[in-house]
Amino acid sequence: MVLTINVAVLLAVIIVMRLRRRTQARSRNDEQLTVVIVLVFGVLIAPTAFGQTVFDVVGQLARGVTQSGSP
Question: Does this model's pTM top 0.85?
Answer without folding.
Answer: no
